[in-house]
């Protein structure tokens, strides 16, 4: 003889009380009986991932409950009518919204429900879809990774802000020094004005000599600067910088290709297989999908952030 499953009835009643007061979705639905093809109107209340139903809206004790973890919800066609009835009754049945809750294992009969209005039925289906605790854990993991990444960005920005603050302080000191030099140069210029007025009366040959000297000084400066630039281009430091830049660009291209392949993996395989696993006759189970594509979405998200950071640094 198979033993019945024991559960904490007192806590279940407490959860039913919370569902009546604070449930995500509450209202009347028609439930198809398991023994016969009859529909019975019950008052349903969804709380977290548990669906309670009561005999009436004022009932204090639930008539039953369903655990929705690992379940899926699908729109169902209207069942065929047996026999002939009034035309008004047939039209009312055709307008009703039918949907089915499918449980994640074989041998469990699905829960067939219906409601009067299509909008109400869509709201019930959406609420049941969002009742999975596993989906909440996945969203929590993604948000945790986002939070860690944002914290790292904030810490990096703090370090950069401190460096900029020190640079501004150094620049303020340099500005004060340059102001002092400008004042000194202006004073020197004031003292040299009488001498400059005398230079206007200089001999033309002296002016030509000074012009040639100025040209030679400019040519020597340009030649010296060209030598300095050529020496740096041939230096080990410049060579190491070129190698580093080549490695960085190669890494960015490889990361871009990897992100593209992850995008194809997630959108072309993982998500379609996950939708197929939630169908009425799944070709593959959710456990198989999770074991094959373990953390694929999280890895793709992290590499997208890393790739965007690399491109921002290069830009």
TrEMBL record:
Coiled coil segments of this chain: 161-188
Xref: Pfam families: PH, RhoGEF
Gene3D superfamilies found in the cross-reference section: Dbl homology (DH) domain (1.20.900.10), Pleckstrin-homology domain (PH domain)/Phosphotyrosine-binding domain (PTB) (2.30.29.30)
PH domain ranges (all copies): 22-133
GO molecular function: guanyl-nucleotide exchange factor activity
Acetylation listed as a keyword: no
Species this protein is from: Loxodonta africana (African elephant)
Gene Ontology CC: plasma membrane
Keywords in alphabetical order: Coiled coil
InterPro entries: DBL_dom_sf, DH_dom, PH-like_dom_sf, PH_domain, Pleckstrin
CDD domains attached to this UniProt entry: PH_RasGRF1_2 (cd13261)
Limits of the DH domain: 243-315
Domain of life: Eukaryota
Keyword Coiled coil assigned: yes
GO biological process assignments: actin cytoskeleton organization
Name this protein carries in UniProt: Ras protein specific guanine nucleotide releasing factor 2
């Amino acid at each position: 003889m198979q033993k019945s499953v024991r559960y904490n009835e007192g806590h279940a009643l407490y959860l039913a009380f919370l569902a009546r007061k604070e449930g995500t979705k509450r209202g009347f639905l028609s439930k198809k009986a398991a023994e016969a093809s009859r529909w019975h109107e019950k008052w349903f209340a969804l709380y977290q991932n548990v669906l309670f139903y009561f005999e009436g809206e004022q009932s204090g004790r639930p008539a039953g409950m369903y655990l929705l973890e690992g379940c899926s919800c699908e729109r169902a066609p209207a069942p065929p009518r047996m026999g002939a009835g009034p035309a008004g009754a047939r039209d009312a049945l055709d307008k009703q919204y039918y949907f089915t809750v499918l449980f994640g294992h074989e041998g469990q009969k699905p829960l067939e429900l219906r409601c009067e209005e299509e909008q109400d039925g869509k709201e019930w289906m959406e609420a049941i879809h969002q009742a999975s605790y596993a989906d909440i854990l996945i969203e929590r993991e993604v948000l945790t990774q986002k939070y860690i990444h944002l914290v790292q960005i904030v810490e990096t920005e703090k370090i950069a802000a401190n460096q900029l603050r020190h640079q501004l302080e150094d620049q303020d000191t340099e500005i004060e020094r340059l102001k002092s030099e400008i004042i000194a140069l202006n004073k020197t210029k004031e003292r040299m004005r009488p001498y400059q007025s005398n230079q206007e009366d200089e001999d033309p040959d002296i002016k030509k000599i000074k012009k040639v000297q100025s040209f030679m000084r400019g040519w020597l400066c340009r030649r010296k600067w060209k030598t300095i630039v050529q020496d740096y281009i041939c230096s080990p430091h410049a060579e190491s910088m070129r190698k580093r830049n080549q490695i960085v660009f190669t890494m960015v291209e490889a990361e871009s290709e990897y992100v593209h392949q992850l995008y194809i993996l997630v959108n072309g395989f993982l998500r379609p297989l996950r939708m197929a696993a939630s169908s009425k006759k799944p070709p593959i189970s959710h456990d198989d999908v999770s074991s094959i594509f373990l953390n694929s979405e999280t890895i793709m998200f992290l590499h997208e952030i890393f790739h965007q950071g690399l491109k921002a640094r290069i830009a």
